[in-house]
């Protein structure tokens, strides 16, 4: 199943963004939040994603997107071509400082896959692809990521970037703030990539309401030991010291929606 567009962003905002993107030659996009690649052993980043493995990235459930079809393209690309596509490895967050935004090369897959890959791009009206990363405010271990798509050839997009690249960056940063404020509960990586399960989040919501593990176990028909297992995992992921700190961090990271 491909990721779905988040319904938390009004379609008028999406249409406005696409209209402004068209000035730079782009007509479609998807936007999501990723855990930042790091060498740190910090619990905040443990067991999240390895960007070199497409199967992990393909766990994403929601994105802010121009349309559902572009997310279908994303899934097919990740499943069929990403392992052999040189651009996929080069566009990873680890090189974002030196090539950001990153314009994908037009011939990045092996020759034997070139024809079928071109057919995929043609089917989705894609000639150029661009990726842009930006660290997320207040979340040092998260990155916002845009993938932009254009029917124009790389040469023309490259010329536009040389002329208006800074204006494009400012537009992307402006709308990233909007998307984050509206859709953080759907696209934050702890939820979006199933780092914390729906059951774990349900338990956190009940803890935030003041219920004990015993009370929660009765409500959701689970053993108290099972409830505590989910809470222990959440403590590791969020690097929380105790239940109070765990609830606080769950709000801070957008796992829980309502402000305390």
Gap from first CA to last CA: 35 Å
What's the CATH architecture name of the largest domain? 2-Layer Sandwich
Spatial ordering of strands, largest sheet: 1-3-2-6-5-4
User: Which term fits the overall shape?
Assistant: elongated
Task: Indicate the CATH class of the largest domain.
Answer: Alpha Beta
Count of individual beta strands: 6
Number of domains: 2
What does this structure look like?
Keywords: DNA-binding, Transcription, Transcription regulation. Pfam families: GerE. It is a single chain. Helices cover 49% and strands 14% of the residues. It is an alpha+beta fold and 260 residues long. It has 2 domains: 4-192, Beta-Lactamase; 198-252, Arc Repressor Mutant, subunit A. Helix 8 packs across helix 11 (243-252).
List the helices and strands and how they pair.
Elements (H helix, E strand, L loop, with lengths): L3 E2 L5 H11 L6 E8 L18 H4 L4 E4 L2 H13 L5 H5 L11 E2 L7 H13 L4 E9 L2 E12 L3 H34 L1 H4 L5 H11 L4 H8 L3 H15 L4 H10 L8
Parallel strand pairs: 1-3
Antiparallel strand pairs: 2-3, 2-6, 4-5, 5-6
Helix pairs in contact: 8-10, 8-11, 9-10, 10-11
């Amino acid at each position: 199943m491909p990721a779905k567009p988040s319904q938390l962003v009004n379609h008028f905002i999406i249409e406005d963004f696409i209209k402004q993107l068209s000035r730079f030659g782009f007509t479609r996009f998807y936007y999501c939040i990723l855990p930042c690649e790091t060498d740190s052993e910090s619990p905040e980043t443990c067991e999240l994603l390895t960007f070199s493995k497409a199967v992990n990235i393909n766990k994403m459930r929601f994105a802010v997107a121009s349309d559902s079809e572009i997310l279908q393209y994303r899934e097919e690309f990740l499943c069929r071509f990403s392992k052999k596509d040189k651009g996929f490895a080069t566009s990873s967050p680890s090189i974002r400082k030196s090539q950001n935004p990153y314009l994908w090369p037009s011939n990045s897959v092996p020759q034997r896959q070139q024809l079928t890959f071109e057919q995929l791009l043609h089917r989705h009206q894609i000639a150029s692809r661009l990726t842009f990363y930006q660290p997320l405010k207040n979340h040092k271990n998260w990155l916002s990521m845009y993938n932009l798509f254009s029917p124009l050839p790389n040469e023309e997009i490259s010329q536009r970037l040389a002329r208006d690249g800074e204006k494009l960056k400012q537009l992307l940063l402006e709308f990233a703030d909007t998307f984050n404020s509206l859709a953080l509960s759907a696209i934050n990586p702890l939820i979006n990539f199933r780092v914390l399960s729906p059951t774990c989040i349900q338990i956190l919501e009940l803890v935030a309401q003041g219920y004990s593990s015993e009370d929660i176990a009765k409500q959701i028909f689970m053993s108290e030991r099972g409830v505590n297992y989910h809470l222990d995992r959440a403590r590791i992921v969020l690097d929380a010291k105790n239940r109070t700190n765990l609830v606080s961090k769950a709000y801070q990271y957008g796992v829980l929606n309502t402000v305390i």
